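Our consortium's second objective concerns turning raw sequence data into structural hypotheses that experimental partners can test. To show how far this objective has progressed, the report includes one record in full. It was chosen at random from the queue rather than selected for favorable results. The single chain below, 589 residues long, was entered without modification.
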Amino acid sequence: MERQHYPRPQLVRADWMNLNGKWDFEFDDARIGLRERWQEGERPFALEINVPFCYESKLSGIASQERHDVVWYRRTFRLADAFTGRHTLLHFGAVDYRATVWVNGRKVAEHEGGHTPFSADITNELIDGDNLLVVRAEDDSRDISLPRGKQYWKDKSESIFYTRTTGIWQTVWLEPVSGTRLDRVLLTPDIVTNTVELRAFASGLETAEGQVELKATARFDGQTVAEQTFRIGKSIETYTLSLNDFNYHDSPWRRWWTPEHPNLYDLTLSLTVDGVETDRAESYFGMRKISVDNGKLCLNHRPYFMKLVLDQGYFPDGLLTAPTDEALKRDVEYTKAMGFNGARKHQKLEDPLYLYWCDKLGLLVWGEAANAYEMNETYIRRFTAEWQESIARDYNHPCIVAWVPLNESWGVPNILDDAKERHHALAMYHLVKSLDRTRLVVSNDGWEQMRTDLLTIHDYEWQESVLEQRYSDTATAVASRPAGRCLLVGDTVYEDQPILVSEFGGIAFKMSDWEGWGYSGAENADDFLAKLEAVVRPLLHSPVVQGFCYTQLTDVEQEINGLLTYDRRPKADLDKIKAVMSGQFGKGS
C-alpha cells in the first residue's frame, strides 16, 4: 500500500486506520448512479483503482486520459479493536472536486473543494463486521470558473497547463476518538513575549459530565519548557502558553525557527473530564516571525533575502499525488541542496506531509490557492469557502510565511478595468488578514495588484543587462511592465513594500527525447549554468530586490524549464546551482 504515513502531522493521535489501497471503481458518464442507487453496493463496478491516485495517473492502475466527470469508488472495511466503544471519524485528505459519501447506504458527508480536507462522524452508521463505504466524485472538467489550478480544461495538456485530476487524490483514513475531544488547535507564536497563543476547538462539551480541562506540555530537545492546564468552558477558547526557556546562556533567539536552523518545539495536548483523559494528541510549533519593518522584509526582525523556487507539485506517475511519502521529502531536500531557502507552491494546496518536511528540514513556503480562470457568482462562493479551509488547514505550519490568493489575474482577467474584480482581489487580502494576522499577503502575484504586503513581479527577461537596468533603483522597478502589465491597479499606489521578482528564469534545457518548451533555452549543462547565472546575478546584486522565485523546480509534462527533470534528475551539478544562487559561481565552484 502506498502513502502509509500518518496524514495529519499537526495533530497526531496514536490510533488510526489507513483506507488507501484497492477500491472498486466505476465511471458514470451517463450520470445514472444516483438514480440506480449505486451507493447501496449491489451493482458490480467494472474497474479497480489504487487510492489515493486519480484515475488519470499511472499509479492508479487505470491511467486513462479520457474525460470522465463523474466517478464512483467503493470498498468495505472492518474496524480494529481500538475503535470499540469510541466515535469513528472518516477523513478525506482531498477529493477533486465535489464529493458525496455513504456508509452502509446512508449519506454521511458532502463536500465541495478539490484541495481541502473534510471529515464525518460515522459512528451511528456502523455495523458489526464489514462496512460498505461508497464515494461519488464529480469534477466538471470544462467549467473554467471552478478553482482548478494548473489542471487543463481541454483534452490534452499544453502550454502551462497539465493533466487533470479527478476524484480522490489524498489519503482516506479512519480515526477512533472520544465524544469529548479536540477538533483542532491554532498555534500562534510570539517571539517578543516568548509565548504561544493556543486557540482550542473542542467537541462534546455539552455531554461531558464534569470539568473539562486542557493540559499543554511544550518540550524542546526533550526538555519540558512549559506545562499549563486550562479550563474549557465553551467550544472555542483562547489561552496563552508561556515558554520558560529564557536564561542568560540560552536566550530564545537560539531556539527561533529559520530555514538555516529549523528549531521546533514538541507539544502534547491532553483533554480530561474530571481528571480522566478523553483525548491526547501530539503537535509541534516553531517560534518565528515574518514581517515588513521600514520597507525591509524580515524574518525574526532581521532582514532576510528570500531565494524561492517555483514548485508545481506534479509527479510523472502520480500527477498531483506524490508516489511515496519519501518523494515529498526528497523534493524539499533537492530544493535546499540547490541553495534555495523557500518554495512557492504554485496553484496547489500541497499535501500536509510536504509542509511537515519544510517545517522539519527548514524551508519557507508561500501558500497559494488553486485559481479559476473566469469570475462569476458561483466562483466567488466556491473560492472563498475553499480558501478559508486552506488557511485553517495549514495555519500552524511555521514554514508558511505568505498567502497568495490570486496569481497573474487568473479568475479576475479584467481587473484593470472592472471594479468588481478589483473589489474581489481586495476582499481576498482582507479576508486572509481577518483569519491570520501573522503572515504576509500578496493579493495578486505577478502584476495588477491591489492591496499587498509585497510588490511581486513576474519577469521572464533573459538578458542580464536588461535585468540590471530594470532593477537598478526603486522607481524603475515599480514602473516596469513585464508582460505588458502594470504592477498596480485602481487607486493603489506603491507604499514602499519590499520588491520581489516572484517568477523569472524558466530556462529550457532538454535532457531526453521528451519534447517541451521554456522561456529561453540552453544547449548543455555549462550553457544552462551560464544562462542561469545571467538571470540570477542581477537580482542578487540589485539594491532594491529583496527576494526572488526561480521558475522552476522540475520539468512538468510539456514544460522542460526545470532545474530537475520530471523524474527528479538534476540538469547540472547541485553544488554549482547552489553556487549560482549564492552569487559564488565561478569563484572556486
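The partners drew two points from this record. The mean pLDDT is 94. The first strand starts at residue 17 and ends at 18. Both points have been shared with the crystallography group to help prioritize constructs.
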